[in-house]
């Protein structure tokens, strides 16, 4: 009953839409491409997203037993797979990487893999060496950006790393996106913003303030130059690291009147469909930009992190739509948005979007699970 072929782990059950998408895709892809039906996700079941096909988390909702349940489940599985996200920064004591590495060293029976992940950045040489040691004991690895691929390839691992892409690029296939009608002549501007620096040790708060001033000025300008509706997406509803407080602050300071807040939902497809209704998307949240890109919604990203820059480079975002870390003049940025809102035929889609969808499929097609 509790034996599985795969245990998936990541930042699951954290009320984060991007990580919820990883659960949706890992569940679907492992069935479709690997033929695996027996699997679990290491998170409290009541916090996992509502996926198209139901997923299993920890079997028991008993407080203070989850570490014991994790150990028990890992001893009952064939594969431990990290699916999606920036999960290769360090190996914290007691973390899933620490536990599975020790199991691998002792028994060698458990196979370790990762799909659609990023490697680094590292806070110290010690942290980097921890990750290198883990990578050496893995059985397969696919990374979602060229920088991570080049790094992994330089380590002379006993397996060949695969250069893939973020698995969220597969959402159109899962949701039969091409078959769904899209609202025409939408006047909705989607926004997803986060305040990442505030949650980091030694985060650059001066840069965060500048970034926030940019988005406030931009939105105020847009609201004064057309009858637009602003839809704010709370992609992360975590009470500590979430988006709600900064979203409310931006709304208040930009003095927008015609707006709605689309709160976090456990059903990822609901967020996907709400975002598809937008005429344009402005985001500092990586997965809000990824959703927009592959839902064919014109988008602009604020590159607060290297992973955002990597994404824009990989999909081939047109240079005229690059804002850096909100470092361009807000009027110039607003005019780029307005030109698309006034005539969507002027929009230049990302050059390599279809290629990235095919690369995303490599997260599953490059490996065989036995």
UniProtKB/TrEMBL annotation:
Keywords tagged on the record: Transferase
Q: Sorted alphabetically, which InterPro entries does this protein's record hold?
A: Polysacch_pyruvyl_Trfase
GO MF term set: transferase activity
Q: Which Pfam families match?
A: PS_pyruv_trans (PF04230)
Stretches assigned to the Polysaccharide pyruvyl transferase domain:
68-305
Q: Establish whether keyword Transferase is in the entry.
A: yes
Q: Which domain of life is it from?
A: Bacteria
**What is the name of the protein in this document?**
Polysaccharide pyruvyl transferase family protein
PANTHER family named in the record: COLANIC ACID BIOSYNTHESIS PROTEIN WCAK (PTHR36836:SF1)
């Amino acid at each position: 009953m509790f034996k599985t072929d795969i245990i998936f782990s990541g930042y699951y059950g954290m009320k984060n839409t991007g990580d919820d998408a990883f659960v949706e895709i890992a569940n679907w892809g492992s069935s479709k491409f690997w033929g695996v039906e027996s699997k679990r996700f290491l998170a409290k079941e009541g916090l996992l997203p509502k996926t198209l096909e139901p997923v299993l988390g920890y079997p028991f909702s008993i407080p203070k037993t989850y570490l014991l349940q994790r150990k028990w489940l890992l001893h009952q599985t064939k594969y431990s797979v990290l699916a999606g996200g920036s999960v290769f920064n360090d190996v914290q004591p007691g973390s899933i990487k620490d536990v599975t590495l020790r199991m691998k060293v002792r028994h060698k029976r458990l196979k370790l893999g990762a799909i659609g992940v990023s490697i680094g950045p590292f806070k110290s040489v010690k942290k980097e060496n921890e990750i290198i040691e883990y990578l050496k004991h893995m059985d397969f690895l696919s990374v979602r950006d060229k920088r991570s691929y080049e790094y992994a390839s330089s380590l002379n691992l006993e397996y060949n790393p695969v250069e893939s892409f973020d698995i969220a690029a597969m959402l159109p296939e899962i949701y039969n996106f091409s078959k769904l009608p899209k609202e025409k002549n939408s006047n909705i501007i989607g926004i997803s913003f986060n305040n990442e620096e505030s949650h980091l040790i030694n985060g650059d708060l001066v840069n965060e303030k500048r970034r926030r001033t940019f988005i406030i000025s931009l939105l105020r300008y847009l609201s004064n130059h057309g009858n637009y509706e602003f839809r704010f997406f709370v992609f992360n509803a975590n009470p500590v690291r979430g988006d709600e407080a900064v979203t409310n602050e931006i709304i208040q300071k930009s003095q927008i009147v015609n707006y709605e807040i689309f709160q976090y939902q456990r059903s990822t497809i609901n967020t996907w469909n709400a975002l598809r209704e937008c005429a344009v998307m402005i985001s500092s949240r990586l997965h809000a930009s990824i959703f927009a890109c592959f839902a064919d919604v014109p988008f602009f990203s604020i590159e607060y992190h290297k992973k955002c820059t990597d994404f824009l480079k990989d999909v081939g975002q047109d240079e005229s739509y690059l804002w850096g870390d909100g470092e361009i003049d807000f009027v110039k940025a607003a005019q780029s948005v307005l030109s698309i809102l006034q005539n969507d035929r002027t929009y230049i889609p990302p050059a390599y979007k279809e290629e990235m969808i095919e690369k995303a499929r490599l997260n599953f097609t490059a490996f065989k699970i036995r």
